Amino acid sequence: MKPFRVTMTDELVRAYEMYPHMDIYDNNFNSGYLKESISEILTRFHSDDYIELISQVTPENKQIYED
Q1: What CA–CA distances, in Å, run from 55 to 24, 34, 51, 61?
Q2: Is residue 57 within 8 Å of residue 49, measured between CB atoms?
Q3: Residue 31, SS3?
Q4: Residue 38 φ/ψ, nearest 5 degrees
Q5: Are 13 and 21 in contact (CB under 8 A)?
């Protein structure tokens, strides 16, 4: 998220006292917690073709894929 959005989200969470109802994880949690690869998780929601396409797009070659 962009810094302004993060600040706004944090202010809303604090204003509505949502912290006691949230699970907070640090970055190290994700690496140990995820037993599946990212591609396996993504295929639950996206087709293999889409995942392959997205993995090939870079800022340098994005004009090739634009419609």
Answers
A1: 29, 20, 6, 12
A2: no
A3: helix
A4: -60, -40
A5: no
CA 16 to chain centre: 24
Print the domain residue range for 20: 3-65
Write out pLDDT tens, residues 27-38: 555 555 555 677
Residue 26 backbone phi and psi in degrees, to 5 = -95, 175
Query: Is the pTM value of this prediction over 0.70?
Result: no
Cα separation, 19 vs 35, whole angstroms: 27
Eight-state DSSP code of residue 46: S
Contacts by residues 10-13 (CB-CB < 8 Å, ≥ 24 positions apart): none
What pLDDT does residue 61 have?
A: 87
Domain count, the chain: 1
